[in-house]
Amino acid sequence: MTSLTAPFRSRLLSAFTGDSSGRPDWVSQIEEGDDAGFFGVGSAAWAVHGGMATLVAGIRALLMQTLHPGAMAGVHDWSRYKEDPLGRLSGTIQWLIGVTFSDTTMAVRESNRVGRFHDRVVGTYVDARGVERQYAAGDPELLSWVHVVFTDAFLGSHLVWGSEIPGGPDRYVSEWTKAGELVGVVDPPASQAELRSQLEAFRTAGILKSDDRVAEAVRFIRKPGLPPGMLPFYNILFAGAVASIPLEYRRMLGLRRAWWPAITATRLILVLVGSLLGRSSTSEDAARRRLARLGLL
Q1: How many CB atoms lie within 10 A of CB 170?
Q2: 3 state DSSP class of 203
Q3: Cα–Cα distance between 33 and 35 in angstroms, integer?
Q4: Which of the two residues, 249 and 88, has the higher pLDDT score?
Q5: What pTM value is reported for the model?
């Protein structure tokens, strides 16, 4: 690593994991444990969540999440995303990577950590029909929305920028139902068709809406508090995320595709970031060492 690229690599790792070494304590814990975990070598979840397209998927998921007024109220009322956007990002990554690559004990522990935070998130919001409603982050509708949007974003981004998925899209959606169940999602989609159906059901039922809160959140996601040196790269990833979102949702978000080839430019950025961070996932490497120790590899 040259003296020119090392500082940038450090900033990237700090942004994504909260640790400039790229190996925070929770990554080291993945190497521990007594079983193979919920997924494993050759799984669709490992392929999707170990790929570089996750960098775009996170942006896409955040954008889509804002369209549910209950979810947006929870973020607006309780999240510290404006004060500590990177901290929120690294916390989400910790859950995603932990559930994907760790043993079952750590996966359950990480999901319970998310659940304990949800227990505090309550309040009221005005729905798409103008009716004031109470919300809690653990409500079945909100849990379902976040899970569906998350799964759609990571699958959709991987299909655009990632490699082949073992077993195809249906296998990924089916495998990731386990993550939904761990945080309390009822009847998570088990196929790509079910995923699309559940996502569309939110839109056609008139549950989603765009308002000033959504516009404010979108502006922040477009220009988050990242180090200046990272912004040109992030701007391209943001444009790629927008380009990958279906037209009907882009319109609700008030976003347009860039006039320049954002999909291709994003692919180039992902290749560049991959070369800086290294093609090998530290989390997958840690999981493989656990499996080898247990004689399961």
Answers
A1: 18
A2: helix
A3: 6
A4: 249
A5: 0.91
